[in-house]
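Here is a complete protein record:
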Amino acid sequence: MSAYKRLSIRQKQIVWAWLFLAIPTLFYGLIRFYPTGTAFVISFQDWNLLGERTWTGLSNYQKLWNDPVFWKVFRNTFAYLIIGTPVSLVISFVIAYHLDKTRFMHGFLRMLYFLPFMTSAVAMAWVWRWFYQPVPIGLFNNFLASAGIPQIAFLNSTTNALPAVLAPAVWAGLGFQVIIFMAGLRAIPGSYYEAAKIDGVGWWTVLTRITLPLLKPTIVFIVVFSSIGFLRIFDHVFNMTTNNPGGPLNATKPLVLMIYETAFSSFDMGYAAAQTVVLFLILLLVSLLQLWILKGDNS
């Protein structure tokens, strides 16, 4: 205690700062770093949750490399990413761009767009699953039948199932992205638009030369946030394909669902941990890409 009294005010502030930071740092380490490190260790082991762990070296990764189901799931995961991210980005920007110019019932409309983001993903998935059912249950097929159009096997087709599952996932995230885009739009100084109006610049030039360039940090954030969400998609797929998770023929199965089934259906924790490590590395690469883009934006 006497040593503490001899410290300067600046040094005492540093000590207290580290004391306050120690608790959240320890908590974050226990719930993040320790499980992540344990997953890396288990990925080199054979373990069924009950027996002893045995070291198997790289056998789990070799099994992963030679597993055709994994590569199918890997392609599905990136299909969710490659299709979902740009589609959600464009739709959310168009909505935000026009909603920002709307004054009539602005708050109410913004609430309507944000409401799906606040809704339970499980409840939403089951509602959309009901929409996709065949006649006479499904809303979409009933509408097609009333127009004389043949029914579509939304969830039972290897071609249609993935887009059918992806649609509600995109719709659920639109509200959040719209709000972020609107915040970015309102952060742009109005003087730029006033100068463009005085110079007689057209709306397309204003959009491509002023709005989009100044929205780059916002776009980067939304792209990375959305990308991570689509890479980790699980709730919508699991609940919309409950009878055949990830089906038909693994056409909709993402990597997170494969990890879940491997761990808690097959109880092959080592193999599931190896899949988790692969997912972690993919997410890490996306995060590093974000840092690289942000660095390029600030240079």
Q: What stands out?
A: The first strand starts at residue 45 and ends at 46.
